[in-house]
């Protein structure tokens, strides 16, 4: 645990993250309705280890234990998500008071521990009743989201200092609706674009609803990656530019500039787009960045071959393909470890958006390594995770030295958990979870992060 990091400014916010579906379990407790991910996980072959999240890490019942772990870590904030279908089992209509009470108890426990609650209102688990009516392909879902945001804010806004509307709309669009690797399992390719617009509209309408209910410090958590062309050829550069457009600019430009990055793209989107953009671009207090690695993209080498990355296969026939990121280590997930990509990304965002870019928070950054307890001592010596985060914090510090305004850093994640289509095969946590006994064991990275936080205060 010797990896050190440079000093960060006073007041810099140190946090950890998790999401409801990945940790809560108790999927039928307290009247919670099913979500798109509940249905997806029950479909044979969807989850690689054949598992589901009915129990997950049992955070619903063990949240006090988990809050105590966060307090021992010394974090200033916990980014969690609210299960929409726990609050509104059908996605709209009658409020499930028992479900809302759970988040009330969680927020109280965090406040008592001196940890700022930072709820995310949508982290991929669409209420199944809404999914069956079109999900994010339907404009109605955006409007339902705004009503849901108001319900949660009316209960919690008096104690919540920061809010996140939507988590990673790019992944929901690409993986859920575009290629079907995630819930709801659609394979619509470019016909998935309405899901992007409706999530952005939900964000904008959600901001309005939150502010009306007295919420403050509102942002969004968007995934972003530097996109590098596989070569200097015109074909590879064009493919990389298109991928950057579809995964970075399609989601950031409307929020930060009030316009889609390409008129042709905007023409493919549903509804009164120009009017919607006024809501989508409502000023934010901050903007969240989820960063994991850069992408190398080139033209497809053969129309008959698919392109894979990190266990995800893109269908053949797309106008771009993934290529390996050469010359770097990989996590146990197969993701390249490129800390300076975070600096590269942040500096490029500042260059692209200038004064339109609000203060930033790194709302997710993390790595999957499968280190388990030593059979004799029980210690979990996850030195690779420590090196990963130390390297990324050094890169973040360099970006801040170049003038990028970053106010905080949230590690993904506090606990090992249900990792979506991977099931329980990938471990991102600072705390190890034995999925048979649900025993929590802090890893060496937990102690290391404690020292980083303590040194930064």
From TrEMBL:
The keyword Hydrolase applies. It catalyses: Hydrolysis of terminal, non-reducing beta-D-glucosyl residues with release of beta-D-glucose. GO terms for molecular function: beta-glucosidase activity. One of its GO terms (cellular component) is cytosol. PROSITE patterns: GLYCOSYL_HYDROL_F1_2 (PS00653). Its EC number is 3.2.1.21. The active site is at residues 168, 364. It holds the Pfam family Glyco_hydro_1. Keywords: Carbohydrate metabolism, Cellulose degradation, Glycosidase, Hydrolase, Polysaccharide degradation. The keyword Hydrolase applies. Substrate binds at residues 22, 123, 167, 292, 412, 419-420. GO terms for biological process: cellulose catabolic process. It is an enzyme of class 3 (hydrolase). Belongs to the glycosyl hydrolase 1 family. This is Beta-glucosidase. It comes from Streptomyces roseus.
């Amino acid at each position: 645990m010797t990896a050190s990091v440079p000093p960060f400014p006073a007041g810099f916010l140190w946090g950890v993250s998790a999401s409801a579906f990945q940790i809560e379990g108790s999927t039928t407790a307290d009247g919670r309705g099913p979500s798109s991910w509940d249905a997806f996980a029950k479909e044979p072959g969807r989850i690689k280890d054949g598992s589901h999240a009915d129990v997950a890490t049992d955070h619903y019942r063990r949240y006090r234990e988990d809050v105590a772990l966060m307090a021992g870590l010394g974090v200033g904030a916990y980014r969690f998500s609210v299960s929409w279908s726990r609050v509104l089992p059908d996605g709209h209509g009658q409020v499930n008071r028992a479900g809302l009470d759970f988040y009330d108890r969680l927020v109280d426990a965090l406040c008592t521990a001196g940890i700022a609650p930072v709820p995310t209102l949508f982290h991929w688990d669409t209420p199944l009743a809404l999914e069956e009516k079109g999900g994010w392909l339907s404009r109605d879902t955006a409007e339902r989201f705004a009503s849901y945001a108001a319900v949660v804010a009316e209960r919690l806004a008096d104690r919540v200092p920061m809010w996140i509307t939507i988590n990673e709309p790019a992944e929901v669009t690409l993986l859920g609706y575009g290629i079907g690797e995630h819930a709801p399992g659609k394979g619509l390719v470019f016909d998935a674009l309405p899901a992007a617009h409706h999530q952005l509209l939900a964000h904008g309408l959600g901001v309005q609803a939150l502010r009306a209910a007295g919420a403050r410090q509102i942002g969004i958590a968007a995934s972003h990656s530097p996109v590098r062309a596989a070569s200097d050829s015109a074909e590879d550069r064009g493919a990389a530019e298109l991928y950057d457009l579809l995964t970075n600019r399609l989601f950031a430009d409307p929020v930060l500039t009030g316009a889609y990055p390409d008129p042709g793209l905007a023409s493919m989107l549903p509804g009164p787009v120009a009017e919607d953009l006024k809501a989508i671009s409502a000023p934010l207090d901050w903007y969240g960045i989820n960063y994991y690695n850069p992408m190398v993209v080139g033209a497809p080498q053969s129309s008959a071959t698919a392109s894979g990355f990190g266990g995800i296969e893109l269908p053949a026939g797309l106008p771009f393909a993934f290529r390996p990121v050469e010359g770097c280590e990989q996590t146990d997930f197969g993701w390249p470890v490129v800390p300076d990509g975070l600096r590269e990304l942040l500096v490029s965002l500042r260059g692209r958006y200038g004064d339109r870019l609000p203060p930033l928070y790194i709302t997710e950054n993390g790595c999957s390594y499968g280190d388990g307890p030593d059979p004799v001592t029980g210690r979990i010596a996850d030195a690779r995770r420590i090196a990963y985060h130390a390297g990324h914090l050094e890169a973040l510090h360099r970006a801040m030295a170049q003038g990028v305004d970053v106010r905080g850093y949230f590690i993904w994640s506090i606990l090992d958990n249900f990792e979506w289509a991977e099931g329980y095969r990938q471990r991102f946590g600072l705390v190890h979870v034995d999925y048979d006994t649900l025993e929590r064991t802090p890893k060496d990275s937990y102690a290391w992060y404690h020292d980083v936080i303590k040194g930064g205060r």
